[in-house]
Amino acid sequence: MVVLATLAIVAMVSTTAVGLLNSAQAPGGVEGAAQKPPDAPGVAALGAAPQGMTYTDLGEQCDLSECFRPIAVTADGLDSEETIDAVYTHLIDEGWGRLLPEGRTDPDEVPFSESALSDGAVLVQASVQPYTTDSTAGLLLAHTVPPSPAS
Fold first, then answer.
1. Residue 33: what pLDDT?
2. Which keywords does this Swiss-Prot/TrEMBL entry list (predicted)?
């Protein structure tokens, strides 16, 4: 039993050492792998919410490659689809462009909730599923192309 435990410990230490050596030889080394991705765009990127609606910043969330920001949208008297339509129409009026799903070319055939918007730097994706119990819909903010660490 002691021999099996010793072999297991040696195998774990060896695997960890090989992983560290491989990451140290990779561009950026061990430190590059541990860097946090650039911060997500702030809710201010959306500007003021359309009349009768509020945006609630739910805080930045990050994975290994990028950070994003979920935003709860609350609108009195509207369902989630109507809320997304109102927010997207408002942002398009402010100069944002619409991005259609791959393979789709006619914007009249794609509901706003199935498309995204971009101002060239920030990407907005809507969700008909509210992010909180008291919200109507959700938005997800991210960089259109993740910025370089220097920006």
1. 54
2. Signal
